[in-house]
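ok new one. same drill as before - structure tokens go in, u give me an amino acid for every spot. 207 of them this time. try not to just spam alanines like last time pls lmao
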């Protein structure tokens, strides 16, 4: 049988080998962390990077959130004292910016949006989501202002075409134009009135 001294020597040798392996593993880990730190860009002074921000009041209620959704749309949402979204400033996944104000039930009351970098639109709605007023520019350069009835049907339409020629149309509940006033390219005005019986009055005809 081995003596006690021999067994102790073998045990000490095994411990020294384990210590050497542990030291080597620790050294590799430190080198790996150092290399990763060198590859990562150093944060600039005063810069904070986060994927989501939540602002709470003194009572711990969420009053604002800033984040992005799965489609990449970014938004800042302001909430009332009950935590309901009331105002939104965001950029959609199609890169269209938007500013919206809502009721406590989440229905839009006013919205300003820009399409295709050149077509802004402002709309005002009543609770229920029905647009009663809208004004905007089209991609082709024309402009349009609409006044709608309680069902959201446009009834008065004022605008100018892509050449700047102005016009006003009054529409019935079926969407049919009953009165039209416009100025043509020759700077001559025209007026067209249509009665319910189909009778039409024109003065004069634009050349």
């Amino acid at each position: 049988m081995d003596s006690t001294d021999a067994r102790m020597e073998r045990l000490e040798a095994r411990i020294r080998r384990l210590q050497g392996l542990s030291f080597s593993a620790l050294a590799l880990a430190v080198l790996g962390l150092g290399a990763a730190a060198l590859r990562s860009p150093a944060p600039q002074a005063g810069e904070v990077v986060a994927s989501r921000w939540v602002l709470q009041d003194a009572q711990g209620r969420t009053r604002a959130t800033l984040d992005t959704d799965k489609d990449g749309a970014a938004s800042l949402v302001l909430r009332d004292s009950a935590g309901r979204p009331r105002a939104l400033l965001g950029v959609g996944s199609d890169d269209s910016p938007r500013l919206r104000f809502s009721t406590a039930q989440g229905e839009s009351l006013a919205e300003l949006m820009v399409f295709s970098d050149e077509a802004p639109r402002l709309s005002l709605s009543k609770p229920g989501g029905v647009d009663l007023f809208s004004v905007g520019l089209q991609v082709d350069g024309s402009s349009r202002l609409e006044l709608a009835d309680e069902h959201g049907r446009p009834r008065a339409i004022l605008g100018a075409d892509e050449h700047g020629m102005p016009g006003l149309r009054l529409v019935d509940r079926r969407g049919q134009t009953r009165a039209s006033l416009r100025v043509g390219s020759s700077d001559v005005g025209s007026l067209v009135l249509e009665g319910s019986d189909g009778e039409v009055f024109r003065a004069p005809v634009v050349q």
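The first helix runs from residue 4 to 39. and btw Confidence is low (pLDDT under 50) at residues 25-31.
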